[in-house]
Design brief:
Elements (H helix, E strand, L loop, with lengths): L1 E11 H10 L3 H5 L2 H6 L8 H20 L4 H4 L4 E4 L8 E4 L8 E9 L3 E10 L2
Antiparallel strand pairs: 1-5, 2-3, 4-5
Helix pairs in contact: 1-4
Amino acid sequence: LMSKAVVNDIVDIPRMRIALDRNKNIIAKILTRKEIDQLPTQDISSKRFVESLSARFAAKEALAKSLGRSVFGIGFHNIEILKPEGSSKPEISLLEGPTSRNMKFHLSISHSDSSAIATVIAESQE
């Protein structure tokens, strides 16, 4: 495997809270149904929920950047972050498009009280 890119993205958690309080529909715009089902909590008023949403937003941004694209151009629902059964480590994947067949992505996400960060390593399978 040949490494293509290592990309970080950071999201301000308080700003995500403001956006979420303003419009609850952003959850369904950012996350797929499977992602929502796997969140550590469904309580959108909780700090844990907004941390998780922020981290997944950052991860999707980082994957898009690793391809030199915009997350809006790729589509939030075309990037999915799921934890395989029995695993605590989330995996990120590009669901469709020509790039999805020959790329593998590795993800690390973390957060503090104020920021969520994601690092994506994109590897070419060719």
